[in-house]
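Section 5.1 Outputs to date
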Amino acid sequence: MPFSPQKRKGTLNGILFVAIFAAAATMIADLAFIKNLGISPLVVGIVLGIFYANTLHNKFPSAWESGITFSGKKILRFAIVFYGFRITFQQIAEVGMQGFMVSLLVLSSTMIIGIWLGTKVFKMDRDTSILTASGASVCGAAAVLATEPVLKAEEYKTAVAVSMVVLFGTISMFLYPVLYATIIEPATGFLHMSPTTFGMYVGGTIHEVAQVVAVPASVPGAGADMANTAVIVKMTRVIMIAPMLIILGLVLGMMAKKSGGEASKMQLVIPWFAVYFIGMAGVNSLIQNYTLTAPADMATVIKGVIGNINLIDTFLLTMAMTALGMGTRFAKFKGLGLAPIYTAGSMFLWLVVGGFVITQWVVATF
């Protein structure tokens, strides 16, 4: 137990140690150059954690490991639950059936294609394949973090998946504005989309929330409709992480039971933190609805409180990501080769091309 009398001091020191790294990651991510690239504190945190794991790891007390593990497991679940305060059901309703269908079809198709490519075509292990697919199909690093507890995957596999999100999500940020300017822009492009439809395409296919925000800002003349639609569709994908994790847990349980695994244990693989995440989104929806009719001073206070909750939650997620990085040794990457890049690259192509087709079909059909 991490807080047993024998381990309590080491655990607390380990948590504080991770928090210091996370604070450094937060400050680095706030630098203008890093912020303009759409790189979140979570990504900076895992980079710092990996640096520590492969350089300074042996110079610090081993007793701190329990605190690092606690940050990467327990604090992670807590932070994912409170991630629900970033989402409201009203946002999802704003984009209607079209936004919902784009999110659903892109998420489910990318998840299935990614797992199949990873395990069957490029011969990766199951956990790395699922983590990489979840990062591409839902919401980047946060989705990888949320999926890790369901799989009970090793830290280095999480690091591999996050690195793929960073690589191809960054490419997306530069690619999509070029696509819009050359072949999608409604007045000149032969694959034209309206600004609102392009926003739906951006929100439905780009990895990270920060990257989704950055793309419309990089499109000359992009209006508020494009930016707002992109963010709302993206947040619709984010909330879908909860049912995706529940379904994943049940599927893994059934597979283990069929293969004669630990059936009694696997039958209970339901990520309850994902259920609580939906609950928090519901609470946030009620609160946001209340602010519409509340006195102006009260509404301001409530928005400030929720803003602070999101700020703290980002820091806790950064701690969790940093802790996962601290458990990542380069030696464990041996044998993976280029399979993660091939898998993530294939999913990236699907998101760009398949996501475009899905978005156009949904807009024409619904």
